Amino acid sequence: MIQALNGSGDTRTPTWINLICFWILELPLAYVTAVLFGIGETAVFYAIVFADIMMTGMAYYYFKLGRWKLTEV
To answer: Which has more confidence, 70 or 15?
Structure first.
C-alpha cells in the first residue's frame, strides 16, 4: 500500500508513515526492550514485527480514506 501511494504521486504520506513507524516507534522500542529490559536480540525482532504491523495499519487506513486520489502531480 505504501508503494501504491508513492505510485499515485502522494509521496509525503508514505514518508511520514515510515518516519513514525521506523524512527519514532521501531528503533526506541527495540532499544528499550533489548537493552533496558534485558530481553536481547529476540526483542529486536518483535519490535520490527510490531512496527511493520503498525505501518501496515496506518497505510491501510490512509489508503481507505481515498485522499491519495486527490493528489496532484
So the answer is: 15
Distance CA 60, CA 65 (A): 9
Listed as own residue / partner, the contacts of 3-6 with beta carbons closer than 8 Å and 24 or more positions apart are: 4/63, 4/68, 5/59, 5/62, 5/63, 5/68
Of the CA atoms within 13 Å of residue 67, those in its CB half-sphere come to: 10
pLDDT for 52 equals: 95
Mean pLDDT in residue range 52-60: 95
All residues at 6 or more sequence positions from 72 whose CB lies less than 8 Å from its CB, including other chains = 9
DSSP secondary structure letter of residue 50? H
The cell for 21 is 513507524
